[in-house]
Structures are given as C-alpha cells and as structure tokens.
Amino acid sequence: MARFRFMLWGAGFFARKWLEAIQARGDCEVVGIGSRSAARAEELRRDFTLGSAVSYAGWEEAADKGQADGVLITLPQSLHPEATLHALARGWHVLVEKPLALDMAAARTVYEGSRSHPDRVVMVNQNFRWRPHIQALRRGMREGLIGRVGHLMFECRQQIRRKTVDGWRERMAEPFLLDYAIHHFDLMRYLTGDEPVRVTGLSFRPPWSWFDGNSAAAAIVTMRNGLVVDYGGTMVSQGLETTQEGLITVIGDKGTLHLDGKSQVSLHGQGDARNLPQEPIPGGELGYALAEFLGAIRAKQPPETHVTEHIRSLALLLAVVESSRRGSPVEVAELLDFMK
Ligand SMILES: NC(=O)c1ccc[n+]([C@@H]2O[C@H](COP(=O)([O-])OP(=O)(O)OC[C@H]3O[C@@H](n4cnc5c(N)ncnc54)[C@H](OP(=O)(O)O)[C@@H]3O)[C@@H](O)[C@H]2O)c1
Q1: Of 106, 151, 176, 236, which has the fewest beta carbons less than 10 angstroms from its beta carbon?
Q2: Reported confidence tier of residue 226, pLDDT bands at 50, 70, 90
C-alpha cells in the first residue's frame, strides 16, 4: 500500500510531537513543510531526517503549490478554519489540532465546508481521550462499577510557562479555555457519553497571570440525563500543580471513581478501595490519532473525533465563555442551531 503523504503546516512545538508519531509508523510520511521560517523548517528537516520533504514559505504557499494526500495542521488556532478550508479545496484530508476554531461562526464555516467535501476526512485531535488512565476511568463508568453516575468533578491546576511562536497564546482572549480546557470539556462528553444542556461559567484572569487573556475558569454543566459537572481549572497555578487532565472524581449511586495525581484510577465504595487496571495505547496518544485518521480514510468512515463530534465539545466550551460574558446560564443548543 502506498504511504499516505502528509503536508505539515506549522513547524513549532507540537509539529515535532507529530513528526515523532508519524515516523514511528510505516504507512505515512511528511512530503512538505509549510513554515514562514526557513530556519525552523530546516531544523525540522535536520532533526527528523526529512531530506525529500519540500519546504514552502508558509502554509499558504504549501496550500497553493504542494502535492499531498492530506495535511496536518499545527498552526495557531486562529488559522485553523481558514487552513482547513484551503486544504479541503485542494481535495486533501485534514487532521487539525484542537480547537477547530475560536468561535462558533468560524466552526460553522468549516462544518459547511466539510459537508461540501463528504468524501474527505476532517478530524480534530483530542489526544487526552487516548490515554490509558482516561480509558480505564471511562471503562469503569461504562461498566457500571459505581452504578448510575450523578456528579463529575474536575480540578486542573497547571502552570503553563512555555512560550509560543510570536506569542499567539500569550495574546489570546481565552487562552485557558480555548487552548487548554478544550481537552477537559471534550472529556466531559467522552467519559459520560452524554450531551450538555446548560452551562453557567466564569472565565477570568488571576491578577498574577502572565497571559493577556483569561487564564482560569470555573463552570457548572448540566447534562441531558441530569448529571452535573463541577469544573475548575487554571493554567497559572502557583506552587501546586495537577497532571494535565487534573483530578477527576466521578460519583455514582454505588460508589466513586477517582483519577489521582499519579494517573491511577481507583474505585471506592465497593469493599476495599482498589486501582483499576490500565492497558497501554499502542503508539501512544498521537499514534492512536494517526491510526484513527488513516483508518477512517481507508474505511471511508468518520473517525472518532470527526469535525461534527469536535464541534459539540467546542460548543460546550464556548458556552462557558458566553455565560461568563452574559453573567447568566447558557443553553448549549443555542450555539449548535446550524447542526442537523
Ligand atoms: N493536542 C495537544 O495536546 C497540543 C499540545 C500543544 C499544542 N497543540 C496545538 O498545536 C498547535 C500549535 O501549537 P504549538 O504549541 O506547536 O505552537 P508554536 O510552537 O507556537 O507553533 C506554531 C507554528 O505555527 C506557525 N505560524 C504560522 N502562522 C503563524 C502566525 N500568524 N502566528 C504565529 N505562528 C504562526 C509558527 O511559525 P512558522 O510558520 O514560522 O513555523 C509555528 O511553527 C495549536 O493549535 C495548539 O493548540 C496541541
């Protein structure tokens, strides 16, 4: 089988993580790099021995002149919608980093664009899903280990100091929610298998924050079956951090599941507390994402985190922003009125 030819747009921090995952597989390769910086592209070519990959002076030139089967978009988020639509217009499949867009109007343009190219796969990376402890927690919930789930609590405290190219994240209006917490809000749907109805949220900037925009948030989400999610997170924690997913506690009518700071998932309330077994993810989380993307193209099936699936998580997240702005609860359906 011919190797799948990726174009890589963006040559920053996460492009390198993707290159490691691509090179661990035998069925795909990078044939072109779109980066405004010749030096950054050259470093990638050297570090990953990409001798035959063509360098383009930015993603736009790569979109116009490159030849590929698909694109991997690791650009700043404000560029994701436009870049995705350009790639679709070239007839390419798209694997784009989260989030798909910074607002629902832009998400809608991609949704409509993807519907105009139904034979092209558009997948958004939601890699927190594909971690062994998240899988163990989800299995425990799905297998009914704690009975009927009624309350989910998230507590995430990170200190994000890594700088972005040209400071795009440092200048974002909502860096915590849109750049980071999108993973957590996606997990709310992924873990419960339920859809959100109403959100009350507050997005704010602690006075010591080194980001221009809001770098912490709190939210209460009510799901369709009555389950309540209680969420708190920050990217400017001082002195005490959690893991990336944070502490997750799930309370049901027969017990509690808890993801702790050492990525162990424990079951409580069913005799002695015990840790749930975890299975390794072959190829790791980005390896899983690649397998999902390439598998979907070959099977002509939507991947797990196809564009419409991601937009549902994005709407939940943007409902927090909207609720914070209005100072009142927001119905998530309001944001999704364009989706059938
Ligand atoms: N899923 C995850 O866990 C995860 C983790 C980290 C990041 N990400 C995602 O990956 C994407 C990139 O993040 P990153 O951390 O790799 O960022 P980064 O290090 O700042 O890299 C961004 C890349 O985009 C290019 N770029 C093109 N146009 C740009 C513009 N107008 N302003 C700034 N940069 C521009 C940059 O410059 P050149 O064109 O000059 O190369 C750079 O190569 C984001 O969407 C982020 O959400 C995902």
Answers
A1: 151
A2: very high
Q: Which residue has the CA at smallest separation from atom 8 of ligand 1?
A: 14
- Cβ atoms of 101 and 107 within 8 Å: the answer is yes
Tell me: domain 128-279+316-331, CATH 3.10.20.30, correct?
no
Please identify, by atom number, the ligand 1 atom nearest to the C-alpha of residue 169: 20
Query: In which band, very low, low, confident or very high, does the pLDDT at 51 lie, cut at 50, 70 and 90?
Result: confident
Q: Which residues line ligand 1 (CB under 6 A)?
A: 10-15, 35-37, 40, 58, 74-77, 79, 97-98, 125, 127, 164-166, 168, 179
Domain spanning 4-127+284-306: CATH 3.40.50.720: yes
The contacts of residue 101 (CB under 8 Å, 6+ apart) are: 77, 80, 81, 107, 110, 314
> 317 to each of 18, 110, 193, 199, 264, how far by Cα in Å?
25, 17, 16, 9, 26
Contact 321, 201 (CB under 8 A): yes
Per-residue pLDDT, 270: 84
- Given a cut of 90, whether residue 242 has pLDDT beyond it is yes
User: How many angstroms is it from 297 CA to the middle of ligand 1?
Assistant: 25
Cβ atoms of 124 and 339 closer than 8 Å: no
**Distance of CA 92 from the midpoint of ligand 1 (Å):** 20
Query: Residue 336: phi, psi to the nearest 5?
Result: -110, 20
* For the chain, domain boundaries: 4-127+284-306, 128-279+316-331
Query: Residue 87 and residue 70: Cα distance in Å, rounded?
Result: 8
Ligand 1 pocket mutation pick from 8, 13, 61, 96 by most atoms within 8 angstroms of CB: 13
Contacts of 112 (CB under 8 A, 6+ apart): 338
